[in-house]
Amino acid sequence: MHFSRILLSLRPERKLSKRKFIDSLRMYVAGGTGGNGLEKYGGVGGKGGDVWVVPEKTNSPDCASLKRLYKRNPSQRWEAGHGGNSAKMAVKGVPGSDVTMYVPLGISVTSDTGQPLGDINTAEDKICVARGGAGGGPKEQFRGQIGERRHLRLDLKVLADIGLVGFPNAGKSTMLSVMSEATPRIASYPFTTIEPELGIMQYLDYRQISMADLPGLIEGASQNVGLGHRFLRHVERTRLLLFVIDVNGFQLSPMHPHRTAFETLVLLNKELELYKESLIDKPALLAVNKMDLPGAREKYDVFAKQIQNYEEATNALEESLRPKHLVTFDDVIPISNIKLLNTDLLKSRIREVIDYHADVEDEMNRKQWRPLIRPRREVAASYA
After folding, report:
1. 193: which of 59, 140, 149, 219 is 20 to 30 A away, CA to CA?
2. Could you give the CA distance from residue 53 to residue 126 in angstroms, rounded to a whole number?
3. Taking each helix axis from N to C terminus, what angle separates 343-368 and 172-179, rounded to the nearest 10 degrees?
4. What is the C-alpha separation between 51 and 76, in angstroms, rounded?
5. What is the pTM of this model?
């Protein structure tokens, strides 16, 4: 046994994190070494096994994140089998066994140097992340070749129809619990959501729409302040952004300035733009929450006037708050999650907006489609 393997066996095993949601893992992968050939008989060694990343097929809750993969192999060393040597009675060496990592949909695979290796977005996707070495033959002087070895990162971007976007304590978790059967942690202080929570909205005709409650943004999230990029990357793969803001505004702490409802909206717009400008073009709805609190109606009237003149009101703010491009909202709905005010209306508008933009996208694809015509010369010749 190699000395490095002895050290690894003596190292205490890492304890599994108590987190329910794991969205990033770093690991070592190694393709198997090819078997040696047998020059005397022209024998070729078996090829080393490959390491594959494929989509998980079960619907277990652990499969919504990378937790199942972590449980399966806490050391995160994935090494394929070595190829068998050629022998007098078996001239062709036995190939090494492959190793397969099962992951949820929405995984991006990159090398430690940042090189993209592929994505797992559909049930048919699969990625070979470490190929086994060739078996020893005449070209290799009958010596088995070493397989590929590298460190990888697996990063999960949540696949959901709707992504909830808002500052901490805006009521996103309460909304998820009211509109779906999810049971997120809810409290009256910021940062109760520190990892994505998924819920399914069920309609009377059994239509289902998935919703992701994502950790709250704060100013500077695009520069990785707070949960930063770890939150923002999950927004990328949602079909609809649902902005949730507190009609009373937001203040992170006594050391931070108080932001009005309109200022929080503009800041959310800016943070998304700074992270990835294409996010601004996503379909979006705006829910103004906590309308059951005293003085909410007056504050909402002021906000409504500002949002009706979004560009003009934004230009009136100090330059450090202003984004370059503004989100276009399909609707603005005042709600109260606690009193269930307009929550059914919001649920129906979510479906309408998603379907509308899906139809628009389909129509654009149809207009861009052109038939590929390839004249069949042999058929034309038969009629000559």
Report:
1. 59
2. 6
3. 90
4. 13
5. 0.70
> What is the spatial distance between Cα 171 and Cα 187, in angstroms, rounded to a whole number?
9
Q: Between the CA of residue 2 and those of 5, 6, 8, 147, 304, what are the distances in Å?
A: 5, 7, 10, 17, 70
Per the CB < 8 A criterion, the answer to whether 366 and 374 are in contact is: no
Half-sphere exposure of 203 (CA within 13 A, CB side): 14
Name every residue whose Cβ is closer than 8 Å to that of residue 250 and which is 6 or more positions away in sequence. Answer: 167, 168, 169, 170, 258, 259, 264
Length of the chain equals 384
Burial class from Cβ neighbours inside 10 Å (0-12, 13-18, 19+) for residue 190 reads middle
How far, in Å, CA of 262 to CA of 5, rounded? 59
Amino acid present at 345 = L
Q: What angle do CA 256, 262, 263 make, to 5 degrees?
A: 30
pLDDT beyond 50 at 235: yes
CA 280 – CA 268 distance, rounded (Å): 10
pLDDT tens digit string along 270-312? 888 888 888 899 999 999 999 999 999 999 999 999 999 999 9
Q: Is 199 helix (H, G, I), strand (E, B) or coil?
A: strand
SS (H, E, C) 2-33: CHHHHHHHHCCCCCCCCCCCCCEEEEEEECCC
| Cβ atoms 161, 238 nearer than 8 A | yes
What is the Cα Rg of the chain in Å?
Answer: 27
Q: How many other C-beta atoms lie within 10 A of the C-beta of residue 215?
A: 22
Residue 358 to residues 111, 145, 281, 316: CA-CA distances in angstroms? 34, 50, 14, 35
Which tens digit of pLDDT belongs to each residue from 136-166?
999 999 999 999 999 999 988 777 899 898 8
Q: Which residues of 322-337 are buried (b: 16+ CB within 10 A; e: fewer)?
A: ebeebbebbebbbbbb
